[in-house]
Amino acid sequence: MANLPARLLDVLRCPVTGSRLVQDGTVLRATAPGPDGRTPTYELDEGIPVLLRAELLDGAAVSR
Description:
Blueprint: H1 6-11, E1 21-24, E2 27-30, E3 41-45, E4 48-49, H2 54-57
Antiparallel strand pairs: 1-2, 2-3, 3-4
């Protein structure tokens, strides 16, 4: 998995905390903890950030 361009990471923000995101392998991690004290993480799907909270992904169907 290639790294996301720095210009993209400069503008992306965590939808839960509003903090910057950093790439950690195949996921993006917020730079601030969420309300539950955990640091939100977001998957990259074929290099595209999926910036949905985990509870919104539960039961969501992805058609390909």
